[in-house]
Amino acid sequence: MKVLVTGGGGFLGGAIIRALLERGEAVRSIQRGHYPELIELGVESIQGDLCKTDDIDAAAMGCGIVYHIAALAGVWGDYDKYYQANVVATKNVINACKKHNINYLVYTSTPSVVFDGSSEEGIDESAPYSEVFFNAYQETKAGAEQLILASNNGKLKTVALRPHLIWGPGDRHLAPRVIRNAKAGRLRLVDNKNNKVDSCYIDNAVDAHLLAGDDLQKDEKCAGKAYFISNDEPIPMSDMINKILATASLPPITKSINKHVAYCMGNIFECVYSIFKIKREPLMTRFIAMQLSTSHWFDLTAAKRDLLYTPKISIDEGMKRLKASFDIENSDE
Fold first, then answer.
1. Containing domain of residue 59, as a range?
2. At 16, which CATH number?
3. Residue 49 placed within a domain
4. Per-residue model confidence as pLDDT tens digits over 239-256
5. What is the pLDDT of residues 299-320, one digit of tens each?
6. Is the pLDDT of residue 333 over 70?
7. pLDDT tens across 202-233, in order?
8. In the chain, which ranges are E strands?
9. CA dihedral 85, 270, 74, 303 (to 10 degrees)
10. Residue 253: inside a domain
11. I want to staple 163 with a disulfide (CB 3.0 to 4.6 A). Which of 107, 167, 205, 226 is the partner?
């Protein structure tokens, strides 16, 4: 059966497409931009908007399973844009699945849906959704995940995955952002240098999605559930940041600021940017301050049990691959 991937032009979406093709699957992708590389891979590529029902209906027709990866990510921006891209688009994907009798839907969520500003140390999926949200991304992803899980029924099987801090070769967000801020002299640790965080190497995130799709079509153990996904290697935030810097041959970061100062700075920035309607992302936000000063690592028992998920690429091996990709980029320049 044909597989539909939303957001195939993105980091995770593109990686999932390549893995599906390696398995011999027929793949169709829908994304906002035009990506010739997808066509070169043999993907049926549709340039469209998930907020338009006609676009998603055309993409879903004739497919048997959907991997809904597309989303608007970030820590700053207008709520309506996030709502349209994350909630309305997800509603449209669900409705398209029902209209075209698609039985399986795998959704990419985020651990941020349960983040309430405090440390998360070994929490599992019993943790409730946060009652307070610090940005539009967090709030709209929580809403979208709930729509996905509520739509699970006898005809449509759904699952939500919550990978944390996906990184690796081809990453356009986490590693480039850390490196860019370090080069600009803006990178700082926030308060507690020993707060541990989970992350997820790209190949491991892809494996989790394919395993979830396979289970939906066979045993259905994961149907109607959400799962945390990571490398299962929590390390201090400072170590993770410095490992990324080392891949770009940059010195480790040692400067830090107090978490309360960072939070106040974030609050001030948010107020100023809101008043003057500044579109670009602030240097600091409350969400960033709290994320950098708290622990975020998760109990993967459910994913290991139901999905048979086991992280195959360690952080150290992933960093070697990331460095190799940077070395290749630099040699081509």
1. 2-167+200-233+296-313
2. 3.40.50.720
3. yes
4. 999 999 999 999 999 889
5. 999 999 999 999 999 999 999 9
6. no
7. 999 999 999 999 999 999 999 999 999 999 99
8. 2-6, 26-31, 44-47, 63-68, 104-108, 120-123, 157-163, 166-167, 189-190, 196-197, 200-201, 225-229, 235-236, 256-257, 296-298
9. -100
10. no
11. 205
For residue 275, is it within any domain?
no
DSSP string, 185-235: T---EES-TT-EE--EEHHHHHHHHHHHHHHHHTT-TTTTEEEEE--S--E
Contact in structure between 64 and 103 (CB atoms under 8 Å)? yes
Number of other residues whose CB lies within 10 A of the CB of residue 305: 12
> pLDDT, tens digit, for every residue of 61-81?
999 999 999 999 999 999 999
Instruction: Report the SS3 class of residue 45.
Output: strand
Q: Are 32 and 3 in contact (CB under 8 A)?
A: no
Find all residues with CB under 8 Å of 220, minimum gap 6, and list them.
157
User: Does residue 127 lie in a domain region?
Assistant: yes
Q: Which residue has the tokens 């019993």?
A: 126
Q: Within 13 Å and on the Cβ side, how many CA atoms surround 226?
A: 27
Question: Contact 44/28 with Cβ under 8 angstroms?
Answer: yes
pLDDT digits (tens, 9 = 90+) for 12-22: 999 999 999 99
Q: Could you give the angle at which helices 315-332 and 237-247 cross, rounded to 10 degrees?
A: 30
According to the model, what pLDDT value does residue 330 have? 80
What is the pLDDT, as a whole number, of residue 240? 96
Q: Which two tokens stand for residue 259?
A: 């978490």
The one-letter amino acid code at 170 reads G
How far apart are alpha carbons 179 and 143 in whole angstroms? 32
C-beta separation of 224 from 333 below 8 A: no
- Are the C-beta atoms of residues 64 and 102 closer than 8 Å to each other? yes
- What pTM was computed for the model? 0.96
pLDDT at 194 over 90: no
Q: Which residues carry out catalysis? A: 137
- Tell me how far CA of residue 144 lies from CA of 14, 113, 117, 161, in angstroms: 21, 10, 20, 12
Domain total of the chain: 1
